[in-house]
Write a structure and sequence with these properties.
The protein is of the alpha/beta class and 197 residues long. Helix content is 25%, strand content 27%.
């Protein structure tokens, strides 16, 4: 007997989401915190060669950097797998974003209230391409020195862009950001209902 289409076993639906933001905002940390597998990381130690090239202001404790991408996986159920791609944060590696964004449904943009300016380019990147995104304010060590409205105003966010605050070292904070993104994607894909006339 020959096989039929109904006999064929298909794999789970794969969904691609980017985790983006400026240098040192916590992208690698978030991917590692929520991934069900040991994440693939392309981190290298910062060296003297990066002095004057990478802005490490306010990041005295940072000694490594992502040079290509971070990769993690979350199996939602047997039919759905989410693949997370963390982008490099330094300007000299931004050329990779154009490849990483291919096929992505949306993004989580992480920001650090101590250095909000490093996230402007990330937000511009997704806005200019019409790619849905949510903003996660990474409250390092559980502390945030700005309110949600102050962050919205500083980033000039559209009111429809979800913004959540939390420490992305905690898996639940990363999970909440991903759920907010999925909610945003579902709301955008919902059919518009015509009023009864």
């Amino acid at each position: 007997m020959g096989s039929t289409d109904s006999d064929a076993t298909t794999g789970p639906l794969a969904v691609k989401i980017l985790v983006a933001g400026g240098f040192g905002v916590g992208k690698t940390t978030m991917v590692g915190a929520v991934s069900e597998v040991a994440p693939l990381r392309t981190e290298e130690y910062l060296t003297e060669a990066s002095v004057g090239v990478d802005d490490t202001g306010g990041l005295a404790e940072k000694n490594t950097t992502t040079v290509a991408l971070d990769f993690g996986r979350i199996t939602v159920n047997p039919e759905l797998v989410v693949y997370l791609f963390g982008t490099p944060g330094q300007e000299r590696f931004w050329f990779m974003w154009n490849d990483l964004v291919n096929g992505a449904l949306g993004a989580v943009v992480l920001v650090d209230t101590r250095r909000l300016d490093v996230s402007f380019a990330s937000i511009d990147f997704f806005e200019s391409r019409g790619i849905p995104f949510v903003v996660g304010v990474n409250c390092f060590h559980g502390r945030c020195d700005r309110t949600e409205q102050e962050v919205r105003d500083a980033l000039d966010l559209d009111p429809g862009v979800p913004l959540l605050m939390g420490d992305v070292r905690r898996p639940e904070a990363g999970r909440d950001l991903l759920v907010a993104l999925i909610d945003l994607l579902m709301a955008r894909s919902a059919p518009v209902r015509e009023p009864a006339g």
